[in-house]
Specification:
114 residues, mainly beta, seven-stranded mixed β-sheet, four-stranded antiparallel β-sheet, 0% helix
Amino acid sequence: QLQASGGGLVQPGGSLRLSCAASGSISSVNSMGWYRQAPGKQRESVATTTSDGYTHYADSVKGRFTISRDNVKNTVYLQMDSLKPEDTAVYYCNFRNRFLVDYWGQGTQVTVSS
């Protein structure tokens, strides 16, 4: 129900833009966010945005990543600039509706390497 795209291989200092679009069956979305999981590590929150305009970023990505949403298209984006090797991970999008039901995308690989 969530389709993520935009991952790939990029050199350190480069940029990528992730997108995640929801199918029509998901409604009453409150928060949209991105998480990531690196090999051998737990999944962590990267960025979240809520319907009332609240935005939160992990300290490790502040000033480099920007989350945005299109409520009409039911899509969330993650603009990632100044990428570092430690940003390498599988990135997952998450939608949470007002009933606190979570929807997850399938994950998209981001690899930052020279």
